[in-house]
Amino acid sequence: MTASDVQRGSSSSEPALPLAASANAFAPGRALRSAVKVLPEHARGHNRSLVLQTLFHRGAMSRADLARETGLTRVTISDLVAELIADAFVAEKGHREASGPGKPAILVDVDRTGHRIVGIDLSGSDVFIGAVLTLDGDIVARRETPHPPDAGEVLPAVIALARALVADAHAPVLGIGIGTPGVVDDRGVVLTAPNLGWAGFDLEGVLSEALGLPVLVANDANAAVLAEYTFGGAGDDVLLVKVGSGVGSGLLAGGQPMRGSRFAAGEIGHVTVGTDGGPACACGKVGCLEAWLSVPSLSARLAATGDADPDALSGVLRDAGERLGIALAPVVGALDLSEIVLSGPPELLGGVLAQATAEALRTRTLAPFHEGVRVRMTEQGQDIVLRGAAVMVLTARLGVS
Ligand SMILES: [Zn+2]
Predict the structure, then answer these.
(1) Does the pLDDT value for residue 23 go beyond 60?
(2) Within this chain, do residues 269 and 390 fall inside the same structural domain, yes or no?
(3) Distance between Cα 289 and ligand 1 center (Å)
(4) Which one, 62, 176, 385, 397, has the greatest CB density within 10 A?
(5) Its pTM surpasses 0.85
(6) Is the domain of 74 the same as that of 180?
(7) Would you say the C-alpha torsion 257, 263, 264, 265 has a positive or negative sign?
(8) Closest CA to 53 of 391, 399, 393, 396
(9) Which among 95, 111, 127 is the end of a domain?
(10) In CATH, what number is assigned to the domain containing residue 104?
């Protein structure tokens, strides 16, 4: 996945906004980077995104402050703010308290309640979950629907869930973001998602046609790392490991979402760890990371130790954490990552396992540079994919990340 994926426009009944390009050049906050060069004809869209990005992260300010923060002229800011107010993406928020002579300045801010975003997470093995979110990523309504047993019923279930959430929004919907298991290309085509029965399926195209709204589709772990970046304070060089029924990861390097040569960057679940065997994996190999670390695998091995032996229990978690560290050490070394974020059941991942991962990383990477690599649990909880799906929409529609 690349930033340009989430920044591309979508077919829509609403007018498409100009796409953001390289909004990080002098952005006050951070913005997902794009390799796209800013051409003169893109400057207005770029500036528009810069204004939105500044307000999104810094909050309400006067037009004069906005000019100072963005480096744009007062005239340009005045024009852009007028346009953004007309589009209902920015609103005036009253006057600043007077602190001297002269008229107190009018504050403007992103109209955080003027639009809603719909996020859907298809990665659960039992249920699909969805939410209506504010532009700040706060969840204001939730729904879920059972994962249908028959592959032919998956798409109708997703469409029905999306329609119900759009009806719950009670405000214009900026777009629908979807995190799905499997490998997804940069046009939102699900190349393979065996759990959902999809192969080469244009989920983004089919859904935007059915729903009449912009739809963005990405792999669930790739969505999750976006949530960590925008709402979780992650740095520009971060790997998020998502542990559920499988194991996947999402990766940002230099603030750029990594997609890979076949859109499968981050698919670390079936990397075998070590040459000393290990648990058998469903894929037919032995010692895959997923066979050490997935929730079903961890739960089965914990159950096999018997609850009475705390040493054996923590031994299972320590082994899994160490294997994760062994698998990640070359990635940390190659990309000079600053942070590994774990997403999944905190009771399994949060304690001994995360410590063992950090320890294995410390002993297997270059001491002066990588010994400070943090390994931590996400604070986004179960909503991480929903919130990441919202970031996909924010970035594609507003150039905000
Ligand atoms: Zn495997």
Answers:
(1) no
(2) no
(3) 7
(4) 385
(5) yes
(6) no
(7) negative
(8) 399
(9) 111
(10) 1.10.10.10
Q: Using the mean position of ligand 1's atoms as its centre, give its distance from the Cα of residue 192 in Å.
A: 16
Whether residue 295 contacts residue 126, with contact meaning beta carbons closer than 8 Å, is answered with: no
What CATH number did the domain enclosing 143 receive? 3.30.420.40
| Residues by chain with Cβ below 5 Å of ion ligand 1 | 270, 281, 283, 285, 288
CB contact at 8 A, 305 and 313: yes
Largest separation between any pair of C-alpha atoms in the chain: 76
Q: How much distance in Å is there from the Cα of 383 to the middle of ligand 1?
A: 27
The answer to whether residue 259 sits within a structural domain is yes
pLDDT in tens, 91-101: 999 888 776 77
Q: What is the pLDDT of residues 129-148, one digit of tens each?
A: 999 999 999 999 999 999 99
Average pLDDT over residues 212-224: 97
Q: How far is the CA of 285 from the centre of ligand 1 (A)?
A: 5
One-letter amino acid at 133 equals L
Distance CA 136, CA 258 (A): 24
The pair of structure tokens assigned to 126 is 């039992």
* Tokens 């089919």 found at: 206
- How does pLDDT run across 342-397, given as a tens digit for each residue? 999 999 999 999 999 999 999 988 877 777 789 999 999 999 999 999 999 999 99
Q: How far is the CA of 135 from the centre of ligand 1 (A)?
A: 38
Distance 161 CA to ligand 1 centre (A): 32
Same domain, 131 and 190: yes
What residues contact residue 57 under an 8 Å CB cut-off, 6+ apart?
A: 28, 29, 30
Q: Is residue 160 part of a domain?
A: yes
Q: Determine the structural domain holding residue 76 and report its residue range.
A: 3-111
Amino acid at 141: A
Q: Of 169, 167, 161, which Cα lies nearest the Cα of 117?
A: 169
